[in-house]
Amino acid sequence: MQDWQDDTVFKDLRIRARAAACISVALLKGEPLPKDLMNTSFDNGGNVIPGASLPVPSARTP
Fold first, then answer.
1. Of 17, 57, 60, 62, which residue is 20 to 30 A from 7 by alpha carbon distance?
2. Could you write out the DSSP letters of every residue in 2-58?
3. How far is CA 55 from CA 13, 14, 41, 58, in A?
4. β-bridge mates for residue 40, sequence order
5. What's the CA gap between 16 and 22, in Å, rounded?
6. CA angle, 18 then 20 then 21, to 5°
7. Per-residue pLDDT of the chain (62 residues; tens, 9 = 90+)
């Protein structure tokens, strides 16, 4: 079988690692979560949980 894989989603772990570190440090220090990262939320039926939705840059973008 021979074919091409197209439209693979590459998630740059450096972006996620920086964001996770910033959020973790804020939590450990008891500071507010970074507003530039906390851009979404999820209602689980009991609470509204803040979330971070990070960009997935296109590999085709220069």
1. 17
2. -----S-----HHHHHHHHHHHHHHHHHTPPPPTTT--EEEE-SS-EEEE-------
3. 11, 12, 16, 9
4. 51
5. 10
6. 65
7. 566 655 666 677 888 899 999 999 999 999 999 999 999 999 999 999 999 988 776 666 55
